[in-house]
Amino acid sequence: MHLNDAGRLVQTVWDELPARCPGAYLDAFVVMPNHIHGIITVGAPLVGAQKGTDNGATTRVAPTVGSIVGAFKSITTNEYIRGVTTGFRPPFLGRLWQRNYYEHVIRSEESLNCIRDYIATNPFRWELDRENPARQGEDEFDRWLATFKSRPDKRKNP
Predict the structure, then answer these.
(1) Please, what is the angle between helix 65-85 and helix 5-20, to 10°?
(2) Would you say 144 and 130 are in contact if contact means Cβ atoms under 8 Å apart?
(3) What residues in the chain have per-residue pLDDT under 50?
(4) Which end of the chain is more exposed for a tag (fewer CB within 10 A), N or C?
(5) What's the confidence (pLDDT) of residue 13?
(6) Would residue 155 count as lying in a domain?
(7) Would you say residue 157 lies in a domain?
């Protein structure tokens, strides 16, 4: 992926999250044309974590994943809107980010490594993404979904 201005904004805000949210540690991350993937650890770094801050404070409560993601969305949206009002960035309709986010608790180093690999290779799967306007081919989900389309609807034949 070659990031455009909006992608670089998202990457910069992500990289600055540990300074804004002490106790947050960042790991693998990628900006895609229509979404992002990232690993956040709260309270202690993951094995082999790449980035983070530790100000040594013992009385500060670690931020929650929700507060970190909320800050990330708010900061990127406000920065983007600032660019729209100055004529630097094109306007957008609706929301910049979806209302919620998907999370997954990583419980083992094996799982962590698989998810890191998924994030690192995600740009190579963009050509199969259903939201890619230039998409060619199909993926596992498409093949699974097709199995339901070829079955007769049992509700029609009681």
Answers:
(1) 140
(2) no
(3) 57-58, 157-158
(4) C
(5) 97
(6) no
(7) no
CA distance 110 to 45: 16
pLDDT at 144: 72
In a domain, 27, yes or no: yes
CA pair distance 55, 78, nearest whole angstrom: 27
How far apart (Å, rounded) are the C-alpha atoms in residues 97 and 143? 29
DSSP per-residue codes, 107-146: -SHHHHHHHHHHHHHGGGGGGG-TT-TT--S--HHHHHHH
How far apart CA 103 and CA 35 sit, in angstroms, is: 14
Half-sphere exposure of 80 (CA within 13 A, CB side): 22
The total domain count for the chain is 1
pLDDT score recorded for residue 79:
96
Question: According to the model, what pLDDT value does residue 110 have?
Answer: 94
Other beta carbons less than 10 A from residue 133's beta carbon: 6
- pLDDT at site 70: 95
Residue 37: its pLDDT value, please?
Answer: 95
Calculate the CA dihedral of residues 32, 62, 16, 81 and round it to 10 degrees. Answer: 70
| 158 domain residue, yes or no | no
